[in-house]
Design goal:
heterodimer; A: 301 residues; 2 domains; 14 helices; B: mainly alpha; 2 helices; 83% helix
Chain lengths: 301, 54
């Protein structure tokens, strides 16, 4: 027999349960999943397409809940995350764990029953990857944590694609690679100017472990790989000139901003103009690139 | 099997009111979600049956 630890004072509100799903992060997941779904050859009934996006969103929310269940101690010491439901004491860990597991199981079953089982398997793996491999295993043990975490965020367009076609070909793998190689420059740019917060939490972020200069060089290096991946769909003839022109233009700008970060020597976070510009542009870059992919498919398909 | 910890159950009237308000809010949202899922599963079934016929 166990004593229920749930205090009546900590009955989680619906708003806090919603906050546990990291709605802002989810918006990017939903966007890339919709793009994967719309860019895939073939068609999907709107009801099934909506269900696929819903399942992907719920899966992302479940991953976020499990992430916060495990990272309540780190979140408590970081200013950006200290007001989340768990570190702020508005919810107990048990609730977050149950909510995360329940949502995971429901999202995978919904995807499998309503859409197809390949999408469901990839969704299940992406939740496992984010919650266990990234959050529990690697985030606290390697400065490459962001690179590995990027893989978890790269699954949504693949799942969206698989929901339509029932298979995974080279194109969704390239979409995966774009997000995978976009993540390190995006997050390291942020980590460079909020370095102190990660240091305080003891998370081995690249700028903390390898130093700012090494991180800046890696940001520049990753931008080149990202550019190659972004232009590849056009180069292999899988997209039209519209996407090609957009990908080349955006990637040139991204590479320029990344190399500006690469040569920067600033140690004062408030003076890190190049890093802040890259961080802001990286968000626009991903939205614009995936938007161009869908537009290209709609216009030239 | 679990039981409620008696140390945690004592609530002042104000706390009890807040607790019940939260419960009510969650129940209302849960009812809305269940209704949404009923409609969604009806539509999914409809689409699946239609596609298997055609």
């Amino acid at each position: 027999m166990t004593i229920a630890s749930t205090s009546p004072h900590k009955l989680a509100s619906a708003r806090d349960l919603f906050a546990l799903t990291k709605p802002r992060v989810m918006s990017l997941v939903i966007f890339t999943a919709i793009c994967g779904l719309l860019a895939a050859p073939g068609s999907i009934h709107p009801v099934i397409g909506f269900t696929a996006i819903l399942a992907i969103s719920l899966g992302a929310g479940a991953s976020a809940a499990l992430n916060q269940w495990y990272e309540y101690d780190i979140d408590a010491v970081m200013k950006r995350t200290a007001n989340r439901p768990l570190p702020a004491g508005r919810m107990d860990r048990e609730t977050a764990l149950h909510f995360g597991i329940g949502l995971s199981v429901f999202s995978v079953l919904l995807m499998g029953v309503a859409v197809n089982w390949l999408s469901a398997v990839i969704l299940a793996f992406s939740i496992f990857f984010y919650a266990v491999i990234y959050t529990i295993w690697l985030k606290r043990s390697t400065p490459q944590n962001i690179v590995i975490g990027g893989a978890a965020g790269a699954f949504p367009p693949v799942i969206g694609w698989a929901a339509v076609t029932g298979d995974v070909t080279l194109m969704p793998i390239l979409l995966f690679a774009i997000i995978f190689f976009w993540t390190p420059p995006h997050f390291w740019a942020l980590a460079l100017f909020v370095n102190s917060d990660y240091s305080k939490a003891g998370v081995p972020m690249m700028p903390v472990v390898a130093g700012r200069q090494s991180t800046r060089k890696q940001v520049a290096g990753y931008s080149l790989v990202l550019a190659a991946c972004a232009i590849a769909p056009f180069a292999i003839g899988a997209t039209g000139a519209g996407y090609g022109a957009t990908a080349i233009t955006l990637s040139l700008a991204f590479t320029f901003l990344s190399f500006r970060v690469g040569v920067s020597k600033t140690e004062d976070p408030s003076a890190m103009r190049a890093e802040k510009d890259l961080f802001k542009f990286s968000i626009f870059y991903l939205f614009a690139l995936f938007g161009a992919l869908v537009a290209d498919r709609m216009i030239f398909a | 099997m679990s039981e409620i910890d008696p140390k945690n159950t004592a609530m002042s009237p104000a706390e009890q009111k807040a607790y019940q308000a939260k419960q009510k809010q969650r129940a209302a949202i849960m009812a809305g979600l269940l209704f949404f899922l009923v409609v969604l599963f009806y539509l999914i079934t409809f689409v699946k049956i239609n596609s298997s016929i055609s």
